[in-house]
Design goal:
The protein contains one helix and three strands; from the N terminus they run αβββ. It is mostly beta strands and about 70 residues long. It has a three-stranded antiparallel beta sheet, with no helix packed on it. The chain is elongated.
Length: about 70
Amino acid sequence: DAARIVGITKAGHLSVGARADVCIFDPAAQVRISRDALRSQGKNTAFLGLELPGQVRYTLVEGQLMFAIDHA
């Protein structure tokens, strides 16, 4: 419970009044890592060309959609 350890009381859980910071992850997805798919400005990674399991589909911060995968 990292949020509690560092004293953040409105995060780290889902309940009325909490921040609703949520990551929706698809463990069944397979993703091939390419430079075009990287969201970072830095395009160097040892994972280029690899197919890896799992993919973040959506990210919500304080209940607001901040990221949605372009292809579902």
